[in-house]
Write a structure and sequence with these properties.
Length: 454
């Protein structure tokens, strides 16, 4: 596409023009885009150091539902630094006074990215919302004003590229310019991103390569992840079993120290009991903490996985969107105007898991008033949060709960609490081995004439 300059006679000069040159390649989402300036030395001022390029586009909704955690916005990459972005919710703007490598208009599953051959010098980026859009699918308007570096000469080419394509991790990463950072995989915390990049995505793509329905792929992935976490789950259950066995003795200590002013003595006595028995309250918390990064990583992965887009499974028409089995004639605040069955199943199974877990840990959380109520309120909150979210995620959490029930049944058969009680009693009779730190603490106390409690 050429724009000719006029000569001194006011006529178009075929030897003076600005040209946009586009190059399409087979099986590529990347399109070549060059700005060619030919014979423009007689038209442009000799002190010109940059050319302004304005880019504006209205983003339209392509999906059935809008992801509140993965909205439309502008992403940009600093030339020698990280990737940043404007607000995904509200209108936003940013003035960039450093060099940029690319600017991208990102939607949930697709992006249009303008990539500099060298760099953009400065940029003004802005997202706005038209209060009265003509198109019912209108989402947001993107604006970008970029400065292209320019050296004065007769003929010059400013090389650039456009990426028009899906937010597919493999496709975008292959270009080596961090385009994949537009996919919300938990980049803010390195561990979440590593779990998705090096574990979840390779396994997910491997299973998907067999041509299975993606509902089956999620099922197999869930089984594999729960199998990997099986030792951690076993440690958690074993710790709960030890605490249940010790509960009668803990109750006796509570009767021994009924006054509030004796709370510290009671705590010391309980901890001493746990130590002699070879049990630890933290033994159940640490395995749960180890599982949390995986749960959060998958919370980011499933809704942003373009592989699930428009993929049906059972009653769900699209695993990347909600699975409505009943449209309501009215909208419920915080819930919506439909009933998502996978979300309902997930919430019910979470309530059942909470109930079973509360029974297993009965008496261990009595010092935290309101915790039991909060644990039961969480599934209700999930019901509202996930009702309009990707059904593939709710389906995964439902499967994870079902497999957890099976694991708990296996653990209950495998762990004999009578034998565990006998083992704990044997541990109590053994002399408690003091750590090096405790020995140094006692030696320091003796020097000061203070007797450490037994």
């Amino acid at each position: 596409m050429r724009l000719y300059a006029d000569n001194d006679m006011g006529e178009q000069d075929p030897n003076q023009y600005i040209e946009f040159e586009y190059r399409l390649q087979t099986d590529q989402y990347m399109m070549g885009f060059d700005i060619n300036l030919v014979g423009m030395d007689n038209v442009m001022a000799a002190n010109t150091s940059f050319i302004g390029l304005d880019w504006k586009a209205d983003m339209l909704q392509q999906e059935k539902s809008v992801d509140r955690f993965n909205g439309s916005t502008i992403y940009y990459k600093h030339l020698s630094d990280d990737v940043d972005y404007l607000s995904e919710g509200d209108s936003d703007e940013e003035s960039i006074r450093t060099r940029l490598k690319w600017v991208s208009y990102k939607q949930r599953f697709f992006s249009a990215s303008l990539i500099a051959g060298l760099h953009f010098d400065n940029a003004e980026l802005r997202t706005t919302t038209n209060p009265s859009p003509a198109n019912p699918r209108y989402l947001k308007t993107m604006h970008a004003s970029l400065e292209l570096p320019f050296s004065f000469s007769r003929d010059q080419t400013i090389p650039m590229s456009f990426y028009f394509g899906p937010l597919g991790f493999g496709e975008m990463r292959a270009y080596g310019i961090d385009l994949e950072r537009q996919i919300p995989l938990g980049w803010g915390f390195f561990l979440l991103a590593w779990i998705n990049i090096y574990i979840v995505i390779p396994v997910f793509n491997f299973l998907g390569s067999y041509g299975w329905n993606y509902g089956i792929v999620i099922l197999v992935l869930t089984v594999l992840l729960k199998t990997m976490l099986f030792p951690i789950a076993y440690k958690t259950y074993l710790s709960s079993a030890k605490m249940r066995v010790l509960k009668p003795e803990v109750d006796e200590l509570s009767k021994k120290f009924p006054k509030k002013e004796d709370a510290m003595k009671k705590q010391q006595a309980v901890m001493q009991l746990y130590k002699r028995a070879g049990a630890s309250p933290m033994a159940g918390c640490i395995p749960m903490l180890l599982q949390m990064p995986i749960l959060i990583a998958l919370f980011r992965f499933f809704p942003s996985s373009i592989e699930l887009r428009q993929q049906p499974f059972l009653w769900a028409e699209d695993l990347s969107s909600y699975d409505s089995i009943l449209d309501l004639p009215f909208e419920i605040p915080f819930y919506g105007a439909h009933v998502s069955l996978f979300t309902l199943l997930m919430s019910i199974s979470t309530v059942i898991y909470t109930h079973l877990n509360m029974n297993m840990t009965a008496g261990q959380g009595t010092q935290m008033p309101g915790m039991k109520t909060m644990m039961y309120l969480m599934p209700i909150m999930f019901l509202g949060l996930f009702n309009n979210y990707a059904s593939g995620l709710s389906y995964y959490y439902f499967l994870a709960n079902v497999i957890t029930f099976i694991q708990m049944y296996i653990f209950r058969l495998a762990i004999n609490e009578d034998k565990l009680r006998a083992k704990i009693e044997a541990n109590k009779k053994r002399p408690v081995k003091k750590s090096g730190f405790q020995k140094r603490l006692e030696d320091a106390a003796k020097k000061r004439g203070y007797q450490m409690p037994k």
